[in-house]
Amino acid sequence: MASIVKHGKGKMPLRSIDFSYPANRRHRLRLGVVSSDTAKECCRQVEKLIEARSTGQPLALSTGEWLNQISDSIYESLVRFGLCRPRARVNMAPSVEEWITKYIDQRRGDLKVGSIERLEQSANRIKKHFGKTSRIDEVTPDSAADWRAAMLANGLSEATTRLHCRNAKSIFAEAERRELIRKNPFGRLKSSSIAAQRKRNVTAEEATNILKACPSLDWQVLFGLARFGGLRIPSESHILTWENVDWERKLLRVYAPKTDSTRVVPIVPRLLEILKKARELAAGESETIVQMSTNNLHRNFEKLLKAAKIEVWDDLFQTLRRSCETDFAKHHPQGAVSRWIGHSMRVSEQHYLMDDESVLDAATRLDYRGEKADSGEKKRAAESAAEGSRIVSQVEETRGNGGLVIGRKKRPKNEKTPGHQGFCGVAGGGIEPPTPGFSVLCSTN
Questions:
Q1: CATH T-level assignment (fold) for domain 96-177
Q2: Once rounded to an integer, what is the mean pLDDT over residues 151-160?
Q3: Contact 28, 18 (CB under 8 A)
Q4: Which one of 70, 86, 252, 283 is most buried, by most CB atoms within 10 A?
């Protein structure tokens, strides 16, 4: 055990630490003029050093940090006493660039190319703000919050900023797990994904005008696959082949590089018309359906929208996917629709589905009294009301028996259920079936 020795009087006297290492050798570590708290912390860390050296265990992270912070004179004394190695050989936290490069290289085997690219984009922002040579243990929660605020101040959207914060959390969480840092400085930053601003729906009339303004059949095919098929542009559209088209069943087999999965998409009449036209002109010359380059797709589509006299919207091709899913959801079960689009129902609800004007108008025309509804709505309302009345009457009929057993015929109020002395209509055997080997009917008797 180490002990603190005070030399002199007063609040700040000279202090030193006496300890034995090995057991038969006594040493004195002179601290100089330090506070009582500092001396206690030094004594505690010296004891940890003695324990680690005696047992052969690795140093605790906190002890390593303490060694990095103490003065050269005290450190050299510890080296002389045999408690640690020379400072040049003490393990230090890696630099920001070293750690991020190592982390991304080790994730290349289990992450998709797109995920690696987004990680590298976030890494570049981290290195630019904090400096490539800064150690990762020098990044503090305060400086991490400043980094987030700087991205917003530079014009990044909240959604993109949160994406970079999520990546930073992952990078430094691994450093924390490996005990390279004590705490993740990005751990408290807001980083959860936020719902998309689903204000833009490309209507059927707008889709017709855009198709008319398309400069080529290739553009019509590309637009049709996004707006009427919900495909991702260009990752899914440009690898689609004619073999993926089931003309007889009017289905499209779509491979999604993003999720490394294949899904089946129904071919609606408008898309079928476009694909048939493209197939006739292709005449077996090419396997892929879309022949255009992926270069400048967004810029050229913006020109196309201006030619159609339609205001350019944000998230050009994703908005087409949202509009497609919204149309599908009006007529088909959402579970099936989400599978056609290629994501979960939760993602559909949070980022894709929209309430367009036609849905709102239809809701305002509903009259649950049946006075102003059209014939179909009247019929559905009447059926619903009849079913509700039937259930209510069954409930009322069974209340007299002391239990709500829907669907049973009404018994006289004082009549007992056969085979039981109670009121709930359960036979003498009880709820459970007879237990084999017992004479009684109910296992609870």
A1: DNA polymerase; domain 1 (1.10.150)
A2: 91
A3: yes
A4: 252
User: Which of 99, 94, 184, 100 is CA-nearest to residue 144?
Assistant: 184
Q: What's the pLDDT tens digit per position in 386-401?
A: 554 544 444 344 344 4
CA distance 442 to 431: 8
CATH architecture of the domain formed by 204-358:
Orthogonal Bundle (1.10)
How do residues 2-24 score in pLDDT, each as one tens digit? 899 998 887 788 999 999 998 78
Q: In whole angstroms, give the CA distance from residue 173 to residue 169.
A: 6
Long-range contacts (CB closer than 8 Å, 24 or more residues apart) made by 308-313? 308/206, 308/209, 308/210, 308/212, 308/213, 309/209, 310/206, 310/209, 310/210, 313/200, 313/202
Phi, psi of 401, rounded to the nearest 5 degrees = -85, 0
Range ranked top by mean pLDDT from 33-42, 82-91, 192-201: 33-42
pLDDT recorded at residue 161 = 94
Pairing between β-strand 251-256 and β-strand 3-7 as defined by DSSP bridges: unpaired
Side-chain-side CA neighbours of 392 within 13 Å: the count stands at 6
- Nearest residue to 203 via CA among 342, 308, 345, 299: 308
Beta bridge partners of 16: 5, 30
Pick from 67, 7, 12, 8: nearest CA to 36: 12
> Would you give the distance in Å from CA 187 to the centre of its chain?
16
* Residue 370 banded pLDDT, cuts 50, 70, 90: very low
Domain extent listing, the chain: 3-89, 96-177, 204-358, 371-411, 415-445
CB-count exposure of residue 321 (10 Å: 0-12, 13-18, 19+): buried
pLDDT in tens, 300-325: 999 999 999 999 988 889 899 988 98
At residue 297, does pLDDT exceed 80? yes
Rounded-to-integer distance, Cα 85 and Cα 58, Å? 13
pLDDT value at residue 377: 52
Give the up-direction half-sphere exposure of residue 418: CA atoms within 13 A in the CB hemisphere. Answer: 0
